[in-house]
Design goal:
The complex is a heterotrimer of chains A (about 325), B (about 270) and C (about 475).
Chain A (H helix, E strand, L loop, with lengths): L2 H31 L10 H11 L2 H8 L4 H9 L8 H14 L6 H19 L2 H4 L1 H22 L4 H30 L7 H14 L3 H7 L6 H10 L7 H14 L6 H15 L3 H7 L1 H24 L3
Helix pairs in contact in A: 1-2, 1-4, 1-5, 1-8, 1-9, 1-10, 5-6, 6-8, 9-10, 9-12, 9-13, 9-16, 13-14, 14-16
Chain B lengths: L1 E16 L1 E9 L6 E9 L5 E4 L5 E7 L3 E14 L5 E2 L19 H11 L5 H14 L13 H7 L4 H14 L4 E9 L6 E11 L2 E5 L11 E7 L2 H4 L2 E6 L4 E11 H8 L1
Chain C lengths: L20 H9 L2 H18 L3 E2 L8 E2 L3 E9 H25 L4 H4 L5 H5 L21 E8 L5 E7 L6 H14 L1 H6 L8 H11 L8 E4 L8 H11 L2 E3 L4 E4 L2 E6 L2 E4 L2 E4 L22 H6 L4 E3 L16 H9 L6 E2 L3 E2 L3 H9 L4 E5 L8 E3 L5 H13 L4 E5 L5 E6 L2 E10 L1 E4 L3 E3 L4 E5 L13 E9 L2 H9 L1
Parallel strand pairs in C: 3-23, 5-13, 6-7, 6-11, 11-12
Antiparallel strand pairs in C: 1-2, 4-5, 4-20, 8-9, 9-10, 14-17, 15-16, 15-17, 18-19, 19-22, 20-21, 22-23
The chains are: A mainly alpha (about 325), B alpha+beta (about 270), C alpha+beta (about 475).
Pfam families (chain A): Alpha-E (PF04168)
Protein name (chain B): Transglutaminase-like enzyme, putative cysteine protease
GO biological process, one term (chain B): proteolysis
Chain lengths: ~325, ~270, ~475
């Protein structure tokens, strides 16, 4: 397969996964910001979280001056100039899909094209009318449909593999960043005396990553940092956990024919082994934040290795 | 006269370059005017030689390991016959009537050429053109850029040897005379100042005659020819592209030493 | 001025020509509503399949359909054989001309074509001097544009030797007709065209001296107006569709970047103009090409189809010499005629042209796409005067020809069925042998009276049939 084709497939699914993650993040921030903030006031911290996670705080402040719920929502939902917005992600995904129209099934193409057309339609109306939650739900649904169409119709070959690579690289990065941001926010609080707030915060994160039920099934009681971290980093049962994503990446990379991917294949296998044989107490001992930052870097390196092995292949 | 040449060019990139490819026209050929006694290129990797459509010797250098700089060195000895005024060529001169993006004559250039040369199309007319042209656009480093066209440079009234040559080619071709771009080295008379240089050749009475507008020379003196073409892009010593690497910087060191002088230095 | 026009379907007395009779009977017997419904179906199918050409990029939905007319253009097989022989003869001579031009220039030395006409031509590529191409082939794929004058004589209007396009419409039009009207194909013998992609792949493979050459189609990208055709041909041939950035040159060999590492490329069916092929040799700003490609090409390590520098042979200033080329290289008389042409660079011919501008078609020698031309009988006095001034200022840039009437073919229009002017572009493939599939692309000028068939100016297309005349053939065999 041409490297350019592989790159288009990979980025198509990365952008769609990014859109879904962004929708999850927005949904949670939005609903949390409406909650009583335990004496700290206006929920701005919560609202600003997507800006911090995506590194767009400065860009936002430059354009809009102050933090404002409505404007932040617009910034992430519809702003064509914000590369992290849902609008931009869906537009980019559609452009990638268009470039490889001949390589994906009509079902997949029509799903992505229809998503984009509807996005434009929504953008033409006022987003407020549509409802923030409703809008985020819609994006998630479109993403589920895309995955379903991919799973159900794409031939099991390189096209399928590169589509999935994009999904899991993006998802691994996202899970790490969300956990990191929430953990840092909690770290500012003196421990122990804010259990209600703890509860809201951790459950919001678990909900954002569709892991609330998994937590309830695997652990008893209110979510606490050790359990949440173990669940989202090390448990193979949770589809959005780091371990699941790296496991999938390692397996997909092993299936791609050719020798030029060896560095990437080796790296993914090593990462997977490290996760498999790491206990959460070791992570906490090292310091959760430092450990996560390490892994954000490692996932990025894996992304570069995939890039130089397959997507630009000189 | 015997010339000893040491030419080194270093391309530095701001960031590491992933891959690069260069067309090198850095090898002189024998002609009635110049006899190559010895010549060698030092390249970061071996490169095959071939002839391009103009008959120049072309090396294609491809580097696919990441690198931050490329060093290209050329050195050798060449015997110049200063009495030789013109050179013949087995190929037809007619393709050198075509203009290119860099050498297209606009109305101003056509008018200028006709006003200077009138109906005459001989060497004297072109020498007159060369002189008037230099008066119109004196040598002015920094006024133009590599991609400046003949018409733009003429309108500016300034330029370097590349611009002088382009403008001269545009005028001469507009008069119906085939003309071509020459790139090479020049050892200026009476000094040991040595430069990469460009001049023109026009086809008159069955042979190519040189016109060095920048130095107002209608016959080559210490000119060593490397390559010819329709314009700078065809004949330039190094033309390359790279993937990644940011801003490119070029450092050239040039030494074209008349042989006796070099011996004198050695003594 | 009244001119006679040749109609493909009806003779001067209004009787249906023999090779159209089966179709005419079918047309008369088919209810109008049914035809209308099938035409709507065709539009829908073309849209759904994305058989479009792009006007200004795709983002704002400017992909357009080229109008497809369901009344076919039909050519009797006996007539086709002459067209076929004529095209083969012509393309062979043009390839020999190109080879000669970039080598010994015998035709120049023989005084048949003036040296400055070819060597100082902008289409002449110095880059092609001194290299030998496999089988001496330059134009592997050629499109020969034919028109018919009032008496039905075929004339070659121009040769397209660079990157002729339109063959995908020939193939899709046939597919569509067979799908909509299968009964028409059951009732008579219509020569098939759908093996064209196989012939093309075979031609491309045989253009290389390598044993099992790897072939790619090189496109400028999906914003190019003919992108659909590039993708279509790559898919039909089962080869990769690449852009410049997918290829790279190392040690004077061309490779494509794939997920399994670099893969060598031996033959490039390129749909990019010469000037954009190699930014190190031609237009330095080109992002479409491959740096180093020319060096690999001159080394003989890759085949470009078509070769660089074929434009010199399809330039309008060279066109008048093609009949002489056929005599010079093949020692044959031309089977197909040239349109009589005045070369304005010759003073005597220029004055004839200037005196008769109202009746002539004046064309730029470097122009294409139907923009830089004057159609005298259809032009206003002001337009004629503009061209007169241009001709006087730069006569060598123009040729002139009599206004041909162009044959007509019945076509569906708003008011029903009416005659519209058409041309014909057969596609000639030169490999081990010179071949064409029976038929070609018929373009139709949809505006009443218009002679401009270009799709960029509102032209449509028709399926092109080569039909055996069964009764005549059977009778003659019995005699």
């Amino acid at each position: 397969m041409l490297s350019r084709t592989a790159a288009d497939l990979y980025w198509m699914s990365r952008y769609l996964e990014r859109a879904e993650n962004m929708a999850r993040m927005l949904d949670v921030s939005h609903s949390l910001s409406l909650m009583p903030q335990g004496g700290r006031g206006d929920g701005l911290e919560e609202l600003a979280m997507p800006l911090l996670i995506t590194g767009t705080l400065d860009a936002y402040l430059e354009r809009h001056g102050e933090l404002d719920a409505e404007r932040i929502l617009h910034f992430f939902a519809l702003d064509a100039d914000n590369p992290a917005s849902l609008y931009s992600c869906l537009r980019a995904a559609r452009a990638n899909a268009h470039a490889v129209r001949g390589r994906i099934t009509a079902d997949v193409w029509e799903n992505i094209n229809a998503t984009w057309l509807e996005m434009r339609h929504i953008a033409a109306q006022s987003p407020a009318n549509f409802g923030a939650s409703h809008f985020c739900e819609w994006v998630k649904e479109r993403s589920h449909l895309f995955r379903g169409a991919t799973e159900g119709t794409i031939m099991r070959g390189n096209a399928y593999r590169f589509i999935r690579l994009g999904t899991f690289i993006e998802r691994a990065d996202n899970t790490l960043r969300l956990l990191d941001a929430r953990n840092q926010l909690m770290g500012d609080e003196p421990p122990g005396d804010s259990s209600a707030r703890d509860y809201f915060q951790w459950s919001a994160l678990l909900r954002a990553l569709s892991a609330y039920e998994a937590h309830a099934a695997l652990y008893r009681g209110s979510p606490r940092v050790a359990q949440v971290a173990e669940l989202l980093l090390l448990r193979p049962e949770v589809p959005r956990s780091l371990r699941s994503c790296i496991g999938a990446l390692s397996q997909i990379l092993a299936e791609i024919p050719g020798n030029n991917g060896r560095p990437a294949q080796r790296m993914a296998a090593e990462l997977e082994a490290r996760l498999r044989f790491t206990g959460i107490e070791e992570v906490l001992e090292e310091g959760l934040q430092a450990w996560i930052h390490d892994y954000i870097l490692l996932v990025r390196q894996l992304g570069s290795a995939v890039h130089s092995a397959y997507l630009e292949a000189v | 006269m015997k010339l000893a040449i040491h030419h080194g060019t270093t391309y530095r990139y701001a960031d590491q370059v992933r891959a690069s490819i260069q067309y090198l026209r850095l090898t002189p050929q024998d002609s009635p005017r110049q006899r190559v006694l010895d010549w060698a290129l030092e390249l970061p990797q071996s490169a095959h030689a071939q002839r391009d459509g103009h008959g120049n010797i072309l090396h294609v250098l491809t580097l696919d390991e990441p690198h931050q700089a490329i060093v290209i060195k050329a050195h050798g000895h060449v015997e110049i016959d200063e009495s030789c005024e013109s050179e013949s060529d087995p190929g037809s001169p007619l393709p050198y009537l075509c203009s290119t993006a860099l050498t297209a004559a606009d109305a101003a250039l056509r008018t200028f050429a006709r006003s200077v040369c009138g109906k005459s199309r001989d060497r004297a007319a072109l020498i007159g053109l060369m002189e008037r042209l230099y008066q119109h656009m004196p040598f002015t480093p920094g006024a133009t850029r590599v991609e400046t066209t003949a018409a733009q440079a003429f309108a500016l009234g300034a330029g370097v040897c590349q611009d002088h040559t382009h403008v001269f080619l545009a005028c001469v071709r507009s008069l119906g005379i085939p003309a071509r771009y020459v790139s090479g080295y020049l050892c200026a008379a009476g000094s040991d100042q040595l430069v990469s240089h460009a001049w023109a050749e026009a086809w008159l009475e069955g042979a190519w005659y040189s016109f060095d507008v920048t130095n107002q020379l209608a016959r080559p003196e210490r000119h060593l020819k490397l390559a010819v073409g329709l314009d700078y892009l065809d004949a330039c010593p190094v033309r390359g592209m790279c993937r990644g690497g940011g801003q490119e910087q070029m450092h050239a060191q040039l030494q074209v030493v008349p042989q006796q002088q070099e011996q004198a230095q050695e003594q | 001025m009244v001119r006679s026009t040749y109609d493909e379907m009806y003779d001067v007395r209004g009787d249906c020509r023999a090779h159209y009779r089966t179709f005419a009977r079918w047309l008369a017997a088919t209810p109008a509503e049914q035809l209308e419904q099938r035409r709507r179906e065709a539009d829908l199918l073309f849209h759904r399949a994305g058989i479009t050409f792009t006007l200004y990029g795709d983002d704002q939905g400017t992909e357009r359909l080229i109008p497809f007319d369901t009344i076919p253009r039909s050519i009797p097989a006996s007539e086709w054989r002459k067209i076929e022989q004529g095209c083969i003869q012509r393309v062979r001579a043009l390839n020999m001309f190109l080879s000669d031009l970039y080598h010994d220039q015998r035709i120049v030395k023989a005084g048949i074509v003036p040296a400055e006409q070819v060597l100082a031509n902008e289409g002449y590529q110095l880059a092609m001097q001194g290299i030998d191409l496999p089988h001496n082939l330059y134009a592997h794929i050629a499109g020969v544009d034919l028109v018919r004058d009032g008496d039905g004589t075929y004339y070659v209007l121009e040769d397209n030797l660079r990157t002729p396009s339109g063959v995908s419409y020939m193939l899709e039009n046939r597919k569509m007709m067979m799908r909509l009207f299968p009964e028409l194909f059951a009732g008579q013998r219509i020569a098939p065209v759908n093996h064209y992609p196989n012939l093309l792949l075979d031609t491309l493979k045989s253009s290389s001296l390598v044993d099992h050459p790897s072939v790619v189609v090189l496109t400028p990208g999906r914003y190019n107006s003919a992108y659909f055709e590039h993708a279509f041909l790559a898919r039909e041939m089962g080869v990769e569709l690449v852009e410049g950035a997918d290829l790279f040159v190392r040690d004077e060999r061309v490779y494509m970047r794939t997920t399994a590492g670099p893969q060598p490329v031996d033959v490039i069916y390129r749909r990019i103009d010469d000037a954009f092929l190699d930014p190190l040799a031609f237009n330095p700003d080109s992002m479409l090409g491959v740096p180093g490609l020319l060096a690999a090409y001159r080394k003989g390590n890759v085949v470009l189809a078509n070769a660089i520098g074929t434009g010199v042979a399809d330039d309008k200033s060279i066109y008048p010499y093609v009949p002489e080329m056929i005599r010079f290289y093949l020692d044959e008389e031309p089977i197909l005629q040239n349109v009589p042409t005045w070369q304005c660079r010759k003073p005597a011919e220029l004055s004839h042209v200037l005196a008769n501008l109202e009746q002539l078609v004046v064309k730029e020698t470097q122009g294409s796409g139907g923009y830089g031309m004057l159609v005298g009988p259809a032009a206003s006095q002001a337009e004629i005067e503009t061209f007169r001034a241009r001709l006087k200022a730069n006569p060598a840039a123009y040729i002139a020809q009599p206004t041909l009437s162009l044959s007509t073919c019945p076509t569906f229009v708003d008011s029903g069925i009416a005659p519209r002017h058409i041309d014909l572009r057969p596609f000639v493939l030169s490999g081990r042998e010179v071949r064409l599939v029976p038929g070609g692309l018929t373009r139709v000028a949809l505006r009443e009276g218009s002679l401009v068939v270009n799709s960029s100016q509102g032209g449509g297309t028709k399926d092109t049939w080569v039909v055996e005349e069964p009764t005549v053939a059977a009778e003659s065999r019995e005699v």
